[in-house]
Amino acid sequence: MSLRIYNTLTREKEIFQSLEPGKVKMYVCGPTVYDYIHIGNARPAIFFDVVRRYLESSDYEVNYVVNFTDVDDKLIRKAEQLGTTVPEVAERFIQAFNANIDGLGIHKATLNPRVTDHMDEIIAFIQSLVDGGHAYENGGDVFFRTSTFPDYGKLSHQNMDELQLGIRIGVDERKESGQDFVLWKAAKPGEIKWDSPWGAGRPGWHIECSAMARKYLGDTLDIHGGGHDLQFPHHECEIAQSESVTGKPLANYWMHNGYININNEKMSKSLGNGITVQEMLTRIKPAVIRYFMLSAHYRSPLNFSDETIAQAENSVERILNSVSNVKHRLSLAVSEPDAAALDQLKERVAAIREQFKAKMDDDFNTPDAITAMFELVSEANLLLQRPVVSQAELELLLTAFQDFDRVLGLLETVDELLDADIDALIVQRTEARTNKDWKRADEIRDQLSALGIVLEDTPQGIRWRRK
Predict the structure, then answer these.
(1) pLDDT in tens, 14-31
(2) Any known ligand binding at 269?
(3) Contact between residue 35 and residue 279 where contact means Cβ atoms under 8 Å apart
(4) What confidence tens digit (pLDDT) does each residue in 122-140 have?
(5) Are residues 9 and 57 in the same domain?
(6) 3-state helix, strand and coil shares in percent for the chain, rounded to the nearest 5
(7) Which residues are recorded as binding Zn(2+) (predicted)?
């Protein structure tokens, strides 16, 4: 495999080589489950789903872990607002998250560990840091001592002096240094808490991922991923904690996706311009959302607007119509192909496959991989213009579409059962027309139109396509 990945740690593209042949250990930071996930959460969810799919299509067994942060200040505040408990808030929004990723055609992770199920591992991890002199307790809180980890800042490429200058005035006086960060928080009255050697409390945000990643994937991961905003402080702190305990690299490849803007403005709570996945799925088809997310390189910013979504809708329609037309012609295809024509098509499709692979191997360049998919669309459209087409030619194209889509996940978000329903309605309409039951025929046409289906009369019979 010639896959190259841009490693945030080194700021270079590096040839990918897994720790264990044929297996990949990948950890991606998941949501803090205090609310519905938004469009910014959807980008890493979709992109790393594609990374996982591509690795699997390249014959890797991928152990893919995405955590749930189910205890946090935000969950505590949400529970107070709703008059319920933190576990009930977490369960509600974990269920919502699972429904959203199903709606987006995202394959479920190998494992979704929850923080609250791993208190023993988290406390033991913190104790190891304390025992090694990397952490200290003050007032029931435990802090990581950054001065013991000289490489602190290596992921975000900041040095200790720069980080010190960035510390706000009024830093917690219990810290030895403004750069030190919390590992364990003493519980305030009425808060959810767990017993620990330092008193009742709960873990800080950063320590959770270090403990869970180590439990399920070992001391060193192949790939650690997340949004650009997690580089610092979250991933930087993970590195410091984990490598202080193990003495080994936390991950060999660090991957971070870019930001999403809304109408050319940064998405933020202060601007009130966030969009939830729940909301998007009520008005935008999953295939369109996936296409939009993959239409720019994952490290580049992405702008969400009515215009970019309309462009994505048009592009998805072209792909779906082409695949639908190929499937339709299969029932009318001849069994004996023209050998020369078939060989030529095989050569062109093989070249397109190589193009797709080359682009995905180049740091998961999904925009150019999608371009390869449109090369298939062009081949299909040319083929379908011929009056006689063989089954072998159509199946060659259809297989290529399906192989590409196992990675991109555009076609599979379309309900395939709908095809059979549409065909059945068309048969009913044909029978109604034969029986001169024009009213019934018109009703069926209207029903299909409401489903976004356009009927067209062709020399080969009635065919349909999606609007």
Answers:
(1) 999 999 999 999 999 999
(2) yes
(3) no
(4) 999 999 999 999 999 999 9
(5) yes
(6) 50, 20, 30
(7) 29, 209, 234, 238
